[in-house]
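Researcher: Let's try something more involved. This one mixes different molecule types, so please make sure each is placed in the same coordinate frame as the others.
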Amino acid sequence: MPISPSLITEFKNLLGAQNVLTEETDRLSYAYDAAVLKQVTPGLVVLPTNEEQLGKTVKLAYENSLPITVRGSGTNLSGAVIPESSETLVILTNKLNKILEINEEDLYAVVEPGVLTAKFAATVAAKGLFYPPDPGSQTVSTLAGNVALNAGGLRGLKYGVTKDYLMGIEFFDPNGDLIKTGSRTVKCVTGYNIGGMMISSEGTLGIFSKIILKLVPPPKASQAMMAVYDSVQAASETVAAIIAAHILPCTLEFLDQKCIQVVEANAKIGLPTEAAAILLVEVDGSHQAGVDEDAAKVKEIFTKCGSTDIRVAKDAEEKNKIWEARRAALPSLARAKPTTVLEDATVPRSKIPQMVSELNRIAEKYKLEMGTFGHAGDGNLHPTILTDRRNEQEFKRVEEAVDEIFDVAIKLQGTLSGEHGIGIAKAKWMEKETNKATIEFSRRLRLALDPKYLFNAGKKIL
Amino acid sequence: MSEEYQSPVTLAELARMLMKLDDLLITCMRCGFCQSVCPVYGETFREADVTRGKIALLEDLAHELTLDADNVNDRLNRCLLCGSCESNCPSGVKIMDIFIRARAIVAGYRGLGAIKKLIFRTVLPRPRLFNFMIGVSSAFQWPFLRRASEKIGTSRAPILNPVLGHRHIPSLPSKTFSAAHGQIAEPGTNGQVALFPGCVPDKIFTQMSEASLKILKHHKVGVFMPDNLVCCGIPSLASGDIKSFIKLTSQNLAALAAKPFDYLVTPCATCGSNIKENWYRFIDRFSPAERTLIEQLHTKTLDITAYLVRVLKVDFKPVTNGTLAVTYHDPCHLKKGLGISAEPRAILKSLPGYKFVEMPEADRCCGNGGSFNLFHYDLSKSIGQVKRDNIVSVKPKIVATTCPACTLQLMDLLSQNKDEIEVKHVAELYAETL
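Model: All components are placed in one shared frame. Result:
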């Protein structure tokens, strides 16, 4: 049933006609996100421009029983913002994009939901502060999207992920009432930790309107290194040994052979294409001496674990060159074939060798091209399948391979998703990782907060 | 004629022709990274305004998920063709190729408007008629014009508001560059170039063409400019009028074939990138003889600044004691289109008396986009306001650039904001020192 003209008029009165998109051509633009999934065109798309409008929009939609999907930049990889049905109202947060406060004394910032991650990070950096979460989509992702998906990035091992920076959040409930939780203080035990519940809630529990984020002082020194291995096992032992030596690199990245070969073919930056794996490591800290000490220890571990070639960046240019391999990973994989299916099954880091050999086995079994890179330090790998979604036969094998990847990850006591979210793509797997009671509990929780089950239904749990 | 250039009559034909772009469209992985650089999206936050959204719409139309070709065409045209997305695309999607070809296919289905037809098919192919029209307009312009900024050289035309909006525009010269010079065949000992002024430097900013000629003569370069050059064809192509584009290109090729040259040199970034890239993109539409020249032009077309630095290897030594602040705006078609950005800066940094200051986001699009400015003036202006703020932030006396279209836009923006900042082509500033 299409959304009634009188209700559309009400939205126009509330938000201004220019902020209500009714034409099919415009609605089609919100039928997808960055996941390779079936499109669903929403019934109406609105762009509130302030908090009051956002609250009233939620209230009006809920009263009229419209399914609601909140969308930022639509960059998630799990279908988390693909509408439920042709009646869905998509609420865009992009015009709520003001940084409301950066408090340099108390080290926090207050932002509207649509502020872009990289822009925010650059703004606080200009004030000599640091916001570490750096998801791959940071130049376009919104901070509310980061909270809703608990976005990670390259710095997870040492600096944590979005949840580690959420101090407080305000959001609208189905009645359009503003709910406040958390505070601007380091310590806060007032009420339930509702903010914790909003982390990775994927738009199912409330509509965010204001976010308080923790800031930290930036590191003053850093050192980047690269180590080449002729076995994944040796690379993985290196990762374990670095952590066992109580060194926490700010980034500890892994590229497998296929990935190295594809990057080299595309970017031609002099990578060893015979190598089984390379590790890219950066240590940082507040003193050069401490960083040098850590770097020396890491270098020793490289050698001890059997690295066949070690490169240490001597200056900014060399550091940039080392990271070029990682920066080029996704673009190179993406250029190799028309469709790129990027997964993020995550395992305890000691299980990386097993995971990589299982991934290779799966690629072979389903006759697929797959390159794997990722955050070795936190066991969060990105097996990336290179395919063409127009090839139905092959794409069916891709789907089967992805299912098997999840199976393996769960068997290795890992998780379905380290940072991309559950959305539509992995909802059917939730019970396998948890159990029926957990799904039931989650559903009861949702129903208590959203009695009509309108907030991004069809996502997270089925 | 290859099918790609025929006009689809039914929606099914339109869909089938768009399906020929499928191999290009499919390479978009929907990451949405184009949002971070798209000037139009930056103003509207509408997905249909950003490349990912447009590619999705083209796929929808190709697969007949939508039948609303008019609206898809409308969204497709809300694009500056600045190329920012393509240079930032992680999957290397050939975006300009998609948009240029898609515009031709969709415009073929919908047909061109009467005004566009008149301009593209009657005025642009006739250089003498075009020059005559400028001459007449020039003679009669002053009763309509009110001075807006002495410094910038702009005027308002209140009586023409229905046509021009509230634009602040430069006044027209009494004689175009080509009318003043006729054919140019200047002998030289330091290489031989064909000078392609482009419509705006020929008919409005004649000082850009004069400066280019003066520079080339100073460096003893042989200069050839036929007297029957026409528009390079980019306005027609951007509007999807592939027939006019082919006709204009053929006329230019015939004119340029009259005399051999080592390089084609132009003061216009847009003409330069169009000649180098788009003539070549449609090379299969031309005769074998024309193809040879197009291939030559694909590797031998340069803007005047790159010609000076790369070919003539003029030694532009930086000066350090200048005081007159000059900043530089990177035209999209020069930097993202032709990869030229260091050369104009090298020249500016060498000018005696000047102090070069870099503005923030120097390569951010100014919002002109040729006919985009005509059909989406308010959007063009709000995109431009960011550029204006960036210029003003470094407090220059002059903003230099290498594109006449950008110049029109910058003059309008600065004049409307009452900023006392002159807009000049890098070639003009260099020519003043000779």
